[in-house]
Amino acid sequence: MVLRVDGLEVRYGKLHALRGASLSVAPGETVGVIGETGSGKSTLARAVLGLVPASAGQIVVDGTDVTGLNTRQWRAFRRRGVVQYVFQDPLRSLDPDLTIASSLTEPLRIQGVSFAEAASRARELLKRVSLGPELLDRLPGELSGGQRQRVAVARALIVEPRLVLLDEPVSALDSSNRVRVLELLKQLRDAGTSLLFISHDLGSVAGVADRVAVLYRGEIVEQGPVRDVISRPTHPYTKLLVGSAPTLRSAAADRAARASLRALLTSEGAVS
Amino acid sequence: MSLQLTDVHISAGDREFVHGVSFDLPAGGVVGIVGESGSGKTLTCRAALGILPPGFTVSSGTVSLGGRDTATLSTREWTALRGSTISAVFQDPASYLNPSLTVGSQVAEVLQVKLRLRRRAARDRAVELLDSVRLPDVYRRYPHELSGGMLQRALIATAIAAGPRVLIADEATTALDVTVQSEILDLLADLRDSTGLALVVVSHDLAVVAQLCDEVLVMRDGAVVEQGPVSDVLYAPRHEYTRLLIDEHESYGLDRFLSLDGAALEGAVLEGAVRERAPLEGADHGAAR
């Protein structure tokens, strides 16, 4: 497994953001995590990147148990470039003061790759995300949102990571850029990169992921192959989620079905 | 006719931004307007509400409300009609509520001003209205204590407080999670069924409009490129832009799973819902359809 998360709990003071989440990503597999506001999805991303400590459970990345690593050990682990990340706002994964060339080559330079080789890899990666070499000398602020997000993906790939974690990578993009980035993710998947794709939007994840996990109130309430989860959801929240998706051919649940699912979830929430 | 637009053009100076929009919205009817930002959909709504931005005018065509040409209305008459005949909710509900007043007092204020209710009566009616949008127990809460979906429901309660015949929902669910979006759209459909409220639903998302509307207008660059009954527009789109919107949905919405497994899904969702139905308030509110 490239990633194994087992019984992960994260608390912020009294708030129980994750209540025992378990999931795994096999080599070459793309796993989608669906979660809406307050589900704990960003906490999951942060925990996997070592940005928030786990209160219980275990995270194993490419054979290394990272759960108990201290700050210095984390830094050393990150330097190996095993996991890379892409966030919703590419300005968060790209340094606004560095040119695109520097952002792309920095992770390689840290690993001791020569300047010439790093520069040639940078050009190659830009090409792979369908951007021209003329962007190398620009700053992130001089690019469109869609271009920036593709640069962020290129930066994540340049060290040939075992796993790329994407937290809402297309949510801030307009529809044509969203389609381009999703197409790019599909190409990565087909080329064998392992992806953990976290999003509130079942539709964008469904087109890319092999398997999908549904995160609701800090727990993974359902997971399985995309088609099974969408066509035969078992948990009431997943049913509501699928039945709420606006579709053109109105095959989704009707008002009465949604109303009873909401009532059921409210009553469960009141109990727990 | 509750609301009727006849070849409405909207201009600012010598530049025209909306090049002719027409639709008839009967009581209990639902018209959808789809388009991206800059398509003229919001300007069209603002013309219907009589709140065009400064400098913008309806340069030709007519907007009539309850059979009256709104061009003949004085500012005072417009103010009287807004809220009591036509009303609206927009994206970003938080910005339309005063953060330092309780949600209930803001609904009650509308009733005191628009319906001249006394304080006590206004408060009782406000509680009823909040109940009707499934927000019991929020009268004394402040806006920051409510989620985005709850705020939008509170705004809907405020918008329908004075009993309008037409409600415009302009991107009212755009910033919300999909399960919250469906809750708002279901609420609007319930209100239409129970009170005959006519709706204008405006969205950049064709599927949101398709859920609810009888007739749909597709706008681009200020022009209506396609208009007709929802089923015609979705199943036999004539304009290239409409086809583009549909293709996009089919490649990246859930439709491709649902069109194959749709029957199975509906069965699964309904069967599960019936089996697990909890005897709770609100559990049956959609059954009256």
Features:
heterodimer; A: 272 residues; alpha/beta; Rossmann fold; 3 domains; four-stranded antiparallel sheet; globular; B: alpha/beta; 2 domains; disordered C terminus
Entry summary:
Chain A is α/β, with parallel strands linked by helices. Chain A has helices spanning 41-48, 71-79, 90-93, 100-110, 115-128, 145-157, 175-190, 202-206, 226-231, 236-244, 255-271; strands at 3-12, 15-25, 30-34, 56-61, 64-65, 83-86, 163-167, 194-199, 211-216, 219-225.
- CATH class descriptor name of the largest domain in chain A: Alpha Beta
Q: State the secondary-structure class of chain A.
A: alpha/beta
> Could you give the distance between the termini of chain B?
23 Å
What does the main sheet of chain B amount to? 6 strands, mixed
Provide the gyration radius of chain A in Å: 19 Å
**Unreliable residue stretches of chain B:** 260-289
Specify the number of helices of chain B: 10
Average pLDDT confidence of chain A is 90
- What is the helical fraction of chain A, as a range of percent? 40-55%
**Whole-number count of domains of chain B:** 2
Total strands of chain A: 10
As for the CATH topology of the largest domain in chain A, it is Rossmann fold
How many beta-strand elements of chain B? 10
- Global shape of chain B: globular
**Unreliable stretches covering 5 or more consecutive residues of chain A:** none
Describe the structure.
The complex is a heterodimer of chains A (272) and B (289). With 272 residues, chain A is an alpha/beta fold. Chain A folds into three domains: 1-82 and 162-226, Rossmann fold (3-Layer(aba) Sandwich), CATH 3.40.50; 92-160, no CATH class; 233-272, no CATH class. Chain A is 41% helix and 23% strand. Chain A is built from eleven helices and ten strands. Chain A has helices spanning 41-48, 71-79, 90-93, 100-110, 115-128, 145-157, 175-190, 202-206, 226-231, 236-244, 255-271, and strands at 3-12, 15-25, 30-34, 56-61, 64-65, 83-86, 163-167, 194-199, 211-216, 219-225. Chain A has a six-stranded mixed sheet, with helices on both faces. A four-stranded antiparallel sheet of chain A has the order 2-1-4-5, with helices on one face. In chain A, helix 4 runs parallel beside helix 6 (145-157), helix 5 (115-128) packs across helix 6 and helix 6 (145-157) runs parallel beside helix 7 (175-190). The mean pLDDT of chain A is 90. Chain B is of the alpha/beta class and 289 residues long. Chain B folds into two domains: 3-85 and 164-235, P-loop containing nucleotide triphosphate hydrolases (Rossmann fold), CATH 3.40.50.300; 100-163, no CATH class. Chain B has ten helices and ten strands. In chain B, the strands form two sheets. Chain B has a six-stranded mixed sheet with strand order 6-7-8-3-9-10, sandwiched between helices. Chain B has a four-stranded antiparallel sheet with strand order 2-1-4-5, covered by helices on one side. In chain B, helix 3 (103-114) runs parallel beside helix 5. The two termini of chain B are 23 Å apart. Residues 260-289 of chain B have low confidence and may be disordered. Classes of the chains: A alpha/beta (272), B alpha/beta (289). Chains A and B meet through helix 7, helix 8, helix 9, helix 10 and helix 11 of A and helix 6, helix 7, helix 9 and helix 10 of B.
